[in-house]
Amino acid sequence: MSNAPPQPFAGDFSYDFYLRLLRSSRERFALAPLRDYVPPAQRDAPRLYVRHDIDVCLDAALSLAELEASIGVAATYMFIPTSTLYDVASANGRARLRRIQELGHEVAIHFDVATSGIADPEDRETLVRRIDEQCAGLSEITGSPVRSVSFHRPLPIFLKGPDRIGNRVNAYSATLMEYYCSDSAGRWRSGNPLDHLPGSAARVAQLLTHPIWWGAEHRPPAQRLEAFFQAQVDGFDPDNCRNYDVLLRETVPGVVRAGANPVN
User: pTM (2 decimals)?
Assistant: First the structure.
């Protein structure tokens, strides 16, 4: 018997595949957003927490939220208030966040240390204060408290931490990372999730996806990112195209869009 680790999987980023994964997982787990986190010892049924980090595109987030709502799944959608690629406070951003919440999902914070003026990430008091400040802005948009937090491109010090940061559920807590299945960088590192997630014996698990990779038809992540880039820069002059390309590379460093020039 081979002890080789599973090969990363990026073979299907279609909505049909995602629905199959949710339906299969629901046979084993109760599916829930992070706001409903309860320590495993305090409940009986195994639970899978469904989370989405919105790194790039609000429209992609809304499309996935509508898909999940169509089969009765509520998830956590985590937004970066300091994003350089979208603006949650714009009329477009506010409308999408509110619609996602109306569909029954949780609107929460995807906190980016790099764009939040944090000089020392280990300064917990300042960290919590900045998170609180940004959550206040999200709450003003949605009219609801922000109950959960994840970190954009998390530093090692944030991984497998406490269950809560401040008074919010920590997506990177040790408990929630015990069985952690993610499509980060446009691939499932542990192989096809249909092969292992629905049959897992874990009592608590977390499923993380990034809506930018998903669509009605499968497309490789580099192609999906290229299509997004071209749509965003339509009508831009060359300098603004280059600037947007830099922002996209900084936000999603794990995937190079199909039409990008090599970086020396």
Answer: 0.95
